[in-house]
Write a structure and sequence with these properties.
The chain has three helices and three strands; from the N terminus they run βαααββ. A three-stranded antiparallel β-sheet has the order 1-3-2, with helices on one face. A hairpin with a 5-residue loop joins strand 2 and strand 3. It has one domain (about 15-120): Ribosomal Protein L22, Chain A (Alpha-Beta Complex). It is α+β, with helices and mostly antiparallel strands. Belongs to the universal ribosomal protein uL22 family. Keywords: Ribonucleoprotein, Ribosomal protein, RNA-binding, rRNA-binding. One of its GO terms (molecular function) is rRNA binding.
Length: about 130
């Protein structure tokens, strides 16, 4: 006997990918989330490929994972996918100490973030 299967939180035309422990502050990661939000996936991938931000490669991998989930797990058409949601959350913070004058120490926070990308299949209106 196993547990009853949980109902799917997303609609049938949506797929999701989550990346945790990205070594960047959530504020910087949110700039890239805003860049791809609402765009078609091929355009969003192109924007991330040529972005000058260091973390753009991690965001691109997350988006590619969401596209692969849509194609393989939910049988959605890749050409009709749009980034419906892209949001960022906080994750853990590493605390480090930096030596300062007179035997004191200053704390340095090294934040981590997580990113969730949801893609949705849209019907082409002609």
């Amino acid at each position: 006997m196993s547990k009853p299967q949980r109902e799917r939180a997303l609609k049938d035309t949506e797929a999701k990918a989550v990346t945790r422990l990205i070594r960047v502050s959530p504020q910087k990661l949110n700039l890239l989330a805003q860049l791809i939000r609402g765009k078609k996936v091929d355009r969003a991938l192109a924007d991330l490929t040529f972005s000058r931000k260091r973390v753009a490669q991690d965001v691109k991998k997350t988006l590619e994972s969401a596209i692969a989930n849509a194609e393989n797990n939910h049988d959605l058409d890749v050409d009709a996918l749009v980034v419906s949601e892209a949001y960022v959350g906080k994750n853990m913070v590493m605390k480090r100490l930096r030596a300062r004058a007179r035997g004191r120490g200053a704390r340095i926070d090294k934040p981590f973030a997580q990113m969730t990308v949801i893609v949705r299949q849209v019907e082409e209106s002609a």
